[in-house]
Amino acid sequence: MIAELGHFALALALVLALAQALLPLIGAHVRDARMMASAAPLALGQCLALIASFFCLMYSYAINDTTVLNVVQNSHSLKPMLYKITGTWGNHEGSLLLWVNILGLCGAAVSGFGRELPTALRARVLGVLGLISVGFLLFTIKTSNPFDRMWPPPPDGQGLNPILQDIGLAMHPPLLYLGYVGYAVTFAFAIAALIEGRVDAAWGRWVRPWSLAAWSFLTLGIALGSWWAYYELGWGGYWFWDPVENASLLPWLIGTALLHSAIVVEKRDALKTWTILLAIIAFAMSLLGTFLVRSGVLNSVHSFANDPERGLFILALLMVYVVGALLLFAFRASAMIPTGIFAPVSREGAIVLNNLLVCSITAVVFVGTLWPMFADALFGMKVSVGPPFFNSASFPLVVPLLIAMAAGPLMPWKRAQLANVVMRLWWCAVIAFAAFFAALLLSGQHVMPAVGFAFAAWVIGAAVADIADRTAAFRTNWRNAWNRARGLPRAAWGAAIAHAGIGITAAGIAGMGLAQERMVALAPGESTTLAGYEWRLEGVRDVQGPNWTARRATITLLRDGAEVRVMEPSRRFFPIARQNTTEVAIHTNLIADLYAVIGEEEAGTGKAVIRLHYNFLAPWIWIGAAIMALGGALSLADRRIRVSAPNRAAARMVPAE
Amino acid sequence: MMTRKKRRMWILLLCALGLGSATALTLTAFQDNLVFFRSPSDIMAERPGPDRAFRLGGLVEAGSVEREPAVSGQRPTVRFRVTDGAHAIAVTYQGVLPDLFREGQGVVTMGRLGVDGTFRASEVLARHDETYMPPEVADALKRSGHWNPAEGAAPPPATWNTMDPARPAAAGRTGS
């Protein structure tokens, strides 16, 4: 009964989405106020229907309803309640339902927050969102209905893939989807602007918070995925240039470019067509990411058994939306007349350079990710493109980007003097060189990590210089500077903090270049040394969990003979899935991670294979990403953005997440 | 202040420069870093040199996995054979095998072929799902005659994974 209700709610959402797609768009075209006004309630209704549908599926999971096929395939009664609930979106059908749910929430948010938007623009934006919804709801109902029944019901489900039974992975898809789907909103704004043939500063002011929010969520989502891979897969790495990882990086890169160019639209009324194109490409990349993950066309660690019919459907959706948008762009882009004029050396110029470099990196990652697929389809060539390609091809583009991102915020709009920028940044360059030589000396001649540290110092230093410059910290007394700091717009703080976050992540990546690894077979009582620590294997014992059994090792960590910490890595066996997972033990002091994994045990001798890592500055990679997202959130809280936002009463109408 | 035309020229020039350098970087990096996939039969037909890394894939031959006795304080070594039903290649790997590594299942390894004909794997790729068959491996099995497309649809990957290479599908070995 509950499953049928969910199915019905999904169908209802489709009908409402269809109405939301047609009525407001037609209404805006014929200037019919009533038809345009239908957009907001329809979006709200669609959102409610989707939420109802989602909770129906969640309920089926929570009570382990074995008459629902999706539950049977992905759940089991012995699974802890938390993973029963998160298992709702731990599979193809459920994650699609989550995707359309977030799209519905975005639609409701636009209709709630967008009361001050011009009526026609709001109707068109909601109409385009409705169109996207129609496609994905059709896809869900047609090929991936999560509410299919199964009769007769089996006694119990088949269980969730054990490596997905983890809190990190429970949060990863929702955050990532908030990012992906957030770009659907900027896309809808871009299409609405193309239909109207008008882009102005007000449009930029609306697109900016959405691209900021999407970017912040995507940053968190990617970081969480990377952190999860780091501690769950137990390989000791954080980024593998895996096609599916790249698929999430592509919209992030384009989103970063969009974020910056939208500022120029808002502040200077320039780069309009370019920003619209970026908004279209950002959503195209989000769809591409969904396609790559959901179709299984690419060989990746994320490739689950997949259905080619689904891949074709998403590919068709991608084609319809992106080709349609690009055609519209081709016909209408010339209607946008740029008014803001700027010199090449200026804040706008720096942002153009940022866009150019970021788009070039995107192109490199795009080609590297999709080339195996094209080579196979066109030439029947079975090739793969691995980390060495991405590292060597993107590094030369990242270097000028990091140099330029330090200078950009210090330049005034319209026209800047390079000499002024150099005067404000010279001490950052000094610190960067000092960091380079210090790292080279201390690390024992590792050049690349030292280069990384130099750039990290440069970027963080420049963020400090930016704030110091705006608060006149070096020119007046501290009280004056403090008052100025409090008066700074939050967007200025947000930008500096996000840039500093990039520097911190860069330092983490550079530090991981100095990571040490050791893999040894040890008998209980034996020990080995790594990174100045003595690691002693005390023993391995059996542990019983709710739906797994495990072999857990006890490793004592000693420094100069004194005990620092006991680490307990384990290897779990899930009898329902007949699968092993690795549970890493990590001891962090925020400067370095000590990381231990237990491998196979040898029958008879009692020896166990232990893999140990000393990951210098590893936590900084994710701390930096969190700081970037924090910067985004701070920017989002800026008064100038809130001024055009709705009053409080309107905000309360939006259904809470 | 510059005119619109002049500014547009600047931007176009910069774009061309950016795209050009991205293309150049991509092409040079491609040259050095493209990794080809080879099945055991491919290697038998044309032996790649020891200086070029490639990916070897197939099924882990049933009964071929041997773990060398562990020596305290040293990296563990594993030997196994990768087969596509027609030919098999011996592989050595120093390290811990991924959780989903199993005899009779599809596997993709990366490394170089030694002069003695043994493949030295630097990486054994993990999969997230046991019903998943790497597409290249499926293709290699097809080419070696394990599945003849003329005889109907492909069997589900789950049965391929547990297929015992010692008893290949009838169409397989007669041809080779």
Description:
The complex is a heterodimer of chains A (657) and B (176). Chain A is globular. In chain A, the strands form two sheets. In chain A, strands 3, 4, 5, 6, 7 and 8 form a six-stranded antiparallel beta sheet that branches. Chain A is of the alpha+beta class. Among the domains of chain A are: 1-165, no CATH class; 516-619. Helices cover 64% and strands 12% of the residues of chain A. The model of chain A is unreliable at 643-657 (pLDDT under 50). Chain A is built from 21 helices and eleven strands. In chain A, helix 3 runs antiparallel to helix 6 (92-113). In chain A, a hairpin with a 2-residue loop joins strand 5 (549-559) and strand 6. With 176 residues, chain B is of the alpha+beta class. Chain B has a single domain, classed as Nucleic acid-binding proteins (OB fold (Dihydrolipoamide Acetyltransferase, E2P)). Chain B has helices at 4-33, 40-45, 135-143, 157-161, 171-175; strands at 34-38, 54-60, 66-67, 77-83, 88-94, 106-113, 119-124. A five-stranded mixed beta barrel of chain B has the order 2-4-5-7-6. In chain B, a hairpin with a 4-residue loop joins strand 4 (77-83) and strand 5 (88-94). Chain B starts with a helix and ends with a helix. Chains A and B meet through helix 13, strand 1, helix 14, strand 2 and strand 8 of A and helix 1, strand 1 and helix 3 of B. Strand 1 (383-385) of chain A pairs antiparallel with strand 1 (34-38) of chain B, so a sheet runs across the interface.
- Fold-level CATH name of chain B: OB fold (Dihydrolipoamide Acetyltransferase, E2P)
Main sheet properties of chain B: 5 strands, mixed, barrel
**How many strands appear in the DSSP assignment of chain B?**
7
Q: Roughly how many Å apart are the termini of chain A?
A: 25 Å
Morphology call of chain A: globular
Number of helices, where a helix is a run of at least 4 consecutive DSSP H or I residues of chain B? 5
Assembly level: heterodimer
